[in-house]
Write a structure and sequence with these properties.
Number of helices: 2
CATH topology: Tachylectin-2, Chain A
CATH architecture: 5 Propeller
Structural class: mainly beta
CATH superfamily: Glycosyl hydrolase domain, family 43
Number of strands: 23
Distance between the termini: 42 Å
Strand content: 35-45%
Order of helices and strands: HHEEEEEEEEEEEEEEEEEEEEEEE
Radius of gyration: 20 Å
Number of domains: 1
Helix content: under 10%
Amino acid sequence: MAELTNDFFGTGFFDWQRSGPDHLRRLYERTGYNEAEYWGAFSTEPVDEATYELPEWAIGPFGKYPGNPVFGPAEKGWDRGRFGGGVHNGAIVRKDGLFYYVYRGEEPLPEGFWGQGEQQSIEFGEIDYICDIGVATSHDGVTFTRLEGHNPLFRHGEDARYSFEDVCVVEHDGRYYLYCNRWDWKDAENPAINGVYIAVSDNLVDWQKIGLAFPEADEIHRNACVLQNPENQAVRVDGRFVMYLNNGLIAYSEDLLHWESTKVDELWPGGEGCFALTDYSQSDPDRIVLFTGGHHTGHFYAAGEVLLSKSDPARAVDWLPRPVLVAEERYPWENCRDAEEPERLVSCFRDTIFFTGMTRHEGTWWLYYGGSEVYTCLAQADADTD
């Protein structure tokens, strides 16, 4: 693979793909993004990998599966991918001896989507894709088969106008609850139609649509992380289920369907939550670990960990000073290159891994992550924490 140069603005975008630093400044202002607020507590100084040890509460270290990637875009169809997006940002659940991967699949916007004379972009970037949710299964966790007779799940009839993205799935009393982001690109700033969307299933295959989790919210709620145990079962804290969201929001529910949100008092570093885990430690069942993603210690996207507690799920106790999982130059699929033809660009997201989902199986953590927003990859760690 040819050597890559970091000729973009420290964000992962090449200079020919965006309108430059002014565009990013407008993006930050438009979305309320604040580099110092979200990531300022992380040191930008390199960590001595030879001497660094994870604290007792942390999960890891992780080793990457040598056969990565384990799942990629289809040759054709709704999840064939496009430049900059493929199959990723899903949830992994074990059921009846199988790994179920409920994933986000991307394709280019259909011709004529915008209509003649309609606005073809929103203010925080060009929109050239649309997503739906699919299901794939695996006996071994590395070889996945799409359930073609059921996929895609949601973009049918009147719902074809929406993009469904970024999945969280939990189980409770034999029923599965799916949370994803729903977007209407033609009205993408309207919280009445955009945000966390709920569906339920008894078998992880046939899903009943419920609707928005926060239909009366004043701001868009997105990227739901429902607190769960290592077997992906939803966990109550003081009688209520807990959901972490972006933009400093946390929500509570008694039934996993009706949610009420509030702002946390203090943001923690790595404010973009990806996965919330508890009941993994026998010695300290109070622990909650929130896996995060973002510009972690200089990486465009890497996975971090924040420690919280059941005694106060909205307050950070500690966080890792460095990522627990980062992209590596030797892996082309983590650096915007095709997995089989490394000389070919398939994405604009270099130095990018994004936490996708995790489960515990046979004493091992199976952590799935997205490579350059195109592929799904696997990393593993010892799950015997006590």
